[in-house]
């Protein structure tokens, strides 16, 4: 049954319109991540964990000693921001060293300070009760000048955050709409800012807070709200305290917007049966809270259509609110529980609509199967054997390559009406389980399923191995609660005497003759004397060269006194010696490998030597 529920979960895909969400942020999962972050020794993880748990109104253990012992870089203003704000959130400022004031104060005095550093410095001082230090008249002008150098979305987010602290929210409201228009769209259904979740969360939270303080309508269209919500839902798989806190920040901000994005989804089972005749529908905001302005009578199933034939089965049917649960509504489908299949239900809540596929599960049954064995050409009537479910054939059937095996059966529902199913197969498998073939059963005009197995034709699917095979019928449907697997019995197939088993089917047969091969015998080698004479003839020119050099008395006085001359003659001599080594022990490929660098060296040094000789000759003239 678990596999059936998994199949139905896959088949019952919730199709969301542009005006609704299909799920919500998993707050319990985020809380577990944040609680694990409390155990971290990293000061940034501690900060995000404490901040997120505070937003969830969850209990926070005493972390003062952890903050005191945490490791951080006193010169890093970002880490000072995490430390001071974590201490402020957990009321642990008294454990901080007075030295933490130095870094943010020095940042404010820097000439080449960045907007990001200013943000961390100001909020670090604010956490320590020194927030008014940056409240200057020219502060906003300085921020605007810095924005002209880098007007990226993240810098706008930092400036919006600083304006929230300094009281220049009006400036934020004049620029927020333009920043929102700069959001990137992905897959035509999600909006986010360059930089991903951190930047998107920063901008959404600062803009929403500012407009709430100003009591002005948020410059977010309904489409933008749902698309930002879709992006946050796509990031719900975060697994770090930082990601969980940022996601929670943005989701809470967006959920507090009026009107809030609405999520309409099926809760629990997405099918009905004869025993279970209703499904539960969850209608919440982005973080799973009830919709404040939603009245129970506004939740209606506008229509229900059977997907098989587009027949409308219900219209404008109200849903019932579940007692003591304002987010859950019950849709009663007792009117269609006898008509199994897949249905498309259009739900509406507070003017928003969404479509969902729901399966009405029914039971199927097969009373008996007719198994017949007859000639392929139909010259004789087939011998019919009836098998009642779930029994097997009383005896093994016989069929050769000139015959066919036919199966005929009816599939009926709980009320004994003939029905069609999505999957109807007959499996022919060997007893060893190595060879099998699966054939589709097709219904006729009377909804009776038939399969004809031509023994001669199916042999190629079974490696032409004659023997006993089992017949199994498989019946299933996405709207069936009791899929059937029925092993009917065995049939002995004979694919013909002249057929030779091949491949895997040859197992158990007599071994084939051994393949023997003999190589040609080596030719007789010449006598040793002949080889020695030939070698002496080859070496005679070299011996003659040495003798002539001795008689002529080589004059080394004209030998050029240059490195290139020495390198050339040594490389040339090494090349000649290499040929000698080739004669004794090297292979041709090894010789070529050694000769390539020697040849290159000989060429370069010879070229340089010849050029030097030409220059010396021209100077002597």
Based on CA inertia axes, which overall geometry fits? flat
| Helical segment count | 17
Question: Main β-sheet, in a few words?
Answer: 6 strands, mixed
Q: Uncertain segments of ≥5 residues (pLDDT<50)?
A: 1-18, 499-508
* CATH topology label of the largest domain: Glycosyltransferase
What is the percent of helical residues? Answer: 25-40%
Distance between the termini: 107 Å
Using only CA atoms, what is the Rg?
44 Å
Based on secondary structure, the structural category is alpha+beta
Average residue pLDDT: 85
Q: Under the CATH scheme, which architecture of the largest domain would be assigned?
A: Alpha/alpha barrel
Give structural notes.
The chain contains 17 helices and 24 strands. A hairpin with a 2-residue loop joins β11 (341-349) and β12 (352-360). It has 4 domains: 29-255, Glycosyltransferase, CATH 1.50.10; 263-360, Immunoglobulin-like; 364-506, Immunoglobulins (Immunoglobulin-like); 541-620, no CATH class. Strands 1, 5, 7, 8, 11 and 12 form a 6-stranded mixed beta sheet that branches. It has a 5-stranded antiparallel beta sheet with strand order 15-14-17-22-21. Strands 16-24-23-19-20 form a 5-stranded mixed beta sheet. With 621 residues, it is an alpha+beta fold. α2 packs antiparallel against α13 (241-255), α7 packs parallel to α9 and α16 runs antiparallel to α17 (588-620). The protein is flat. Helices cover 39% and strands 22% of the residues. Residues 1-18 and 499-508 have low confidence and may be disordered.
């Amino acid at each position: 049954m678990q596999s059936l529920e998994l199949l139905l979960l896959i088949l019952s895909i919730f199709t969301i319109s542009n005006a609704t969400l299909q799920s919500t942020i998993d707050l319990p999962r985020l809380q577990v991540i944040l609680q694990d972050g409390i155990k971290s020794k990293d000061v940034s993880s501690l900060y995000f964990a404490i901040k997120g748990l505070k937003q969830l109104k969850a209990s926070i253990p005493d972390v003062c000693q952890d903050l005191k012992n945490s490791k951080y870089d006193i010169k890093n203003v970002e880490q000072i921001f995490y430390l001071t704000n974590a201490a402020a959130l957990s009321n642990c400022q008294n454990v901080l060293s007075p030295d933490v004031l130095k870094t943010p104060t020095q940042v404010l005095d820097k000439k080449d300070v960045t907007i990001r550093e200013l943000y961390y410095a100001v909020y670090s001082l604010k956490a320590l009760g020194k927030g008014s230090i940056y409240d200057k008249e020219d502060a906003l002008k300085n921020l605007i000048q810095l924005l002209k150098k880098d007007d990226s979305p993240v810098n706008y987010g930092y400036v919006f955050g600083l304006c929230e602290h300094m009281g220049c929210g009006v400036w934020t409201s004049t620029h927020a709409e333009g920043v929102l228009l700069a959001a990137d769209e992905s897959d035509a259904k999600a909006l986010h800012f360059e930089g991903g979740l951190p930047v998107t969360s920063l901008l959404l939270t600062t803009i929403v807070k500012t407009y709430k303080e100003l009591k002005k309508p948020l410059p977010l269209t309904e489409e933008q709200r749902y698309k930002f919500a879709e992006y946050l839902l796509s990031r719900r798989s975060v697994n770090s305290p930082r990601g969980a806190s940022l996601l929670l920040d943005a989701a809470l901000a967006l959920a507090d917007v009026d009107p809030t994005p609405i999520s309409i989804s099926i809760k629990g089972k997405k099918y009905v049966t004869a025993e279970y005749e209703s499904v539960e529908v969850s209608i919440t905001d982005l973080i799973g809270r009830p919709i404040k302005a939603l009245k129970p009578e506004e939740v209606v199933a506008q229509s229900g259509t059977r997907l098989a034939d587009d027949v409308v089965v219900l219209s404008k049917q109200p849903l019932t609110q579940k007692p003591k649960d304002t987010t859950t509504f019950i849709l009663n489908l007792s009117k269609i529980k006898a008509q199994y299949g897949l249905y498309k239900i259009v739900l509406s809540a507070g003017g928003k609509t969404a479509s969902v596929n729901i399966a009405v599960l029914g039971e199927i049954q097969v009373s008996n199967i007719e198994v017949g064995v007859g000639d392929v050409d139909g010259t004789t009537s087939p011998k019919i054997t009836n098998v009642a479910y779930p029994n097997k054939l009383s005896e093994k059937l016989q069929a050769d390559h000139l015959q066919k095996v036919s199966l005929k059966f009816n599939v009926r529902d709980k009320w004994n009406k003939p029905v069609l199913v999505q999957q109807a197969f007959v499996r022919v498998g060997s007893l060893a389980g190595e060879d099998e073939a699966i054939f589709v059963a097709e219904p006729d005009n009377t909804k009776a399923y038939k399969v004809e197995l031509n023994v001669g034709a199916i042999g190629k699917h079974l490696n032409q191995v004659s023997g006993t095979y089992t017949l199994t019928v498989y019946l299933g449907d996405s709207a069936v609660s009791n899929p059937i697997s029925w092993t009917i019995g065995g049939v002995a197939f004979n694919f013909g005497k002249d057929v030779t088993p091949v491949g895997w089917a040859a197992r158990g047969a007599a071994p084939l003759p051994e393949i023997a091969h003999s190589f040609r015998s080596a030719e007789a080698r010449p006598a040793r004397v002949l080889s020695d004479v030939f070698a002496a003839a080859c070496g005679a020119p070299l011996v003659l060269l040495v003798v002539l050099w001795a008689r002529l008395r080589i004059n080394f006085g004209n030998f050029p006194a240059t490195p290139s001359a020495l390198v050339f003659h040594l490389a040339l001599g090494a090349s000649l010696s290499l040929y000698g080594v080739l004669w004794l022990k090297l292979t041709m490929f090894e010789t070529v490998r050694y000769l390539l660098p020697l040849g290159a060296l000989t060429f370069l040094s010879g070229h340089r030597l010849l050029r030097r000789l030409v220059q010396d000759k021209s100077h002597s003239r």
